[in-house]
Amino acid sequence: MSTREQQELQSRREHLEAWRALGFALYPAIFNKEHSTADILALADGKDLPILEGAEVPKSVIATSAGRLMTIRPHGQLVFATLQDTAGKIQVAFLESALDKKSWELVNLFDIGDIVGVSGPLVKTKRGEITILATSVTPLSKCLHPLPEKWHGLKDIEARLRQRYLDLMTSAETRELFIKKAKYWQAAREFFTKTNFMEVQTPALEAIPGGADANPFITHHDALDQNFYLRISLELPLKRLLVGGFEKVYEIGKVFRNEGIDTEHLQDYDTCEFYWAYADYNNLMDFTEKLYQYIVEVVSGGLKTVYDGKEINWSGAWPRKDYFELIKEISGEDLAGVTEVADLQKLLQKYKVRYDENMGAGRLIDLFWKKLVRPKVLGPLFLINHPIEVSPLAKKHDTLAGRVQRMQVIVAGSELGNGWSELNDPFDQRERFEGQMKLREAGDVEAQMMDEDFVTALEYGMPPAAGFGFSERLFSFIVDKPIRETVIFPPMRSK
User: Fold this and answer.
1) Residues 416, 383: contact at Cβ < 8 Å?
2) Side-chain half-sphere of 118: how many Cα atoms within 13 Å?
3) What one-character-per-residue DSSP string does 360-372 give?
4) What sign has the CA pseudo-torsion 237, 242, 244, 245?
5) How many other CB atoms are found less than 10 A from the CB of residue 482?
6) What is the pLDDT of residues 40-54, one digit of tens each?
7) Which of 51-65, 78-92, 97-111, 258-272 has the lowest mean pLDDT?
8) In Å, how far from its chain's centre is CA 238?
């Protein structure tokens, strides 16, 4: 720490003690904030506000607000400051003649970043700027550290993510990003409400993780003296609700996957899954198309967005492309009849794609798709009819052997949603779980575990149904940001 920084810290602490010496409470419990900055602009709208001039306190409508001081500009007996809250910014004028002696002394002890409450008449400056002329001022919280450079904020991405509160404090763009994030999930809830889905909450701790191919986190439950897993999906509990008699359910909640960090993946993130009795994956595609279009329009204001320099047009009916046909169309490789692991390994070697020796044929084909084909798809489109090996919870296709009634939303080279006609045959489900367990025994840590209770639930009878899941990854694509930047407090390595 430089000498200048040390002096700044010392000065701020001395100012805090001076607050105390003047008789002000250092950190009061409450302040009656009657108006946000947006409310103040509404109060002023259409009114002929008096001009701030001289030492007189004009009569005008009174505003009472609070926020953080982002600028302080002394001019002798007049101090201008910028007050910032969630709604925006407003100028405050501290005039010596409008304040008692103690309050004027307090004003001269303010530092940029302090949180204060003010009350007084609304005026305009000679330049026409709406301003609160403070006749009372209340210190609420001292900022003991200097803020990042006021015009540029935090530029280092690591610092921005690690100290997100500073990023939010100094960047209007970041604040707007998370306002949009709130609208994203709000829009989803609105759409589900309109279509008669019921929101539910299921446990984050599971004795057996399931519903996705992912490596789970393990934790120990002291009271039960048993290891549990943090859920990797919401799927199996929600389908148990279909067994129980609910027909349209959804959940927005946290899932946890112990896998790598990149521009699209996190280990701790928000997802949404919904399940719809008496529907199939064709109904699902019709519904999901409308759901996504509703969310995109609410968040972005239209149906065209840009991601990584590519324009995405979300409007209209999206194409539905067969899994193997699309692979052939883009790569020229016909993999529909290829079942030998050795042949697929040679193919991946040809294209210099690394693979795990324990992967079966279905996973090798899916790796080919993910590495060599998917990056070339702009979309949005629905990828349909996947191999059964990579879809252990999906219903078998009626006419395509070794395939399932599954669909994925593909946009700009990425998967932005995944769903299928749900497998409700308990005998088939047991067989699939047993196949997954063989993959686990062979070293595939993402293969699913046997869930006897879920099979038992299916034995009681689950109606035909379709289910779908999407996460906050969709939001990151709408706003054209790496996913870590769209999470308020992403996991960070300890310093």
Assistant:
1) no
2) 36
3) -HHHHHHHHIIII
4) positive
5) 13
6) 999 999 899 999 988
7) 258-272
8) 22
Single-letter code of the amino acid located at 329: E
CA-closest candidate to residue 418, choices 463, 458, 366: 366
Q: What is the largest CA-CA distance in the chain?
A: 90
Amino acid at 344: L
Structural contact between residues 115 and 67, judged by C-beta atoms closer than 8 angstroms: yes
Q: What is the pLDDT of residues 250-274, one digit of tens each?
A: 999 999 888 877 767 788 889 999 9
Within 8 A by CB and 6+ apart from 142, the residues are 12, 15, 16, 19, 26, 27, 111, 114
238 vs 231: CA distance, rounded Å: 13
d(CA 474, CA 161) in angstroms, rounded, equals 20
Q: To the nearest 10°, report the CA torsion of 153, 158, 159, 164.
A: 80
Domain 170-319+379-486 classified CATH 3.30.870.10? no
Distance CA 168, CA 352 (A): 43
What does pTM read for this prediction? 0.89
CB 467 within 8 A of CB 288: no
- List the domain boundaries for the chain: 3-147, 170-319+379-486
What average pLDDT score do residues 191-209 get?
93
Phi, psi of 388 (to 5 degrees): -65, -30
- For 67, residues 6+ apart whose C-beta sits below 8 A from its C-beta are 37, 83, 84, 85, 90, 115, 116
CA Rg, the chain, in Å?
A: 29
Q: How far apart are CA 42 and CA 130, in angstroms?
A: 11
Whether 256 contacts 267, CB under 8 Å: yes
In b/e form, how buried is each residue of 109-123, taking b as 16+ CB within 10 angstroms?
A: bbbbbbbbbbbbbbb
The distance of Cα 6 from the centroid of its chain, to the nearest Å, equals 37
Q: Contact 406/385 with Cβ under 8 angstroms? A: yes
Q: Hey, which CATH number is domain 3-147, 3.30.1490.20, 3.40.50.300, 2.40.50.140, 3.20.140.10?
A: 2.40.50.140
Helix/strand/coil for 163 = coil
Residue 225: other Cβ atoms inside 10 A? 7
Question: Is 279 within 8 Å of 273 (Cβ atoms)?
Answer: no
Q: Are 91 and 131 in contact (CB under 8 A)?
A: yes
Q: How many CB atoms lie within 10 A of CB 102?
A: 11
Q: Map tokens 């009795």 to a residue.
A: 277
Note whether 203 and 238 are within 8 A (CB). no
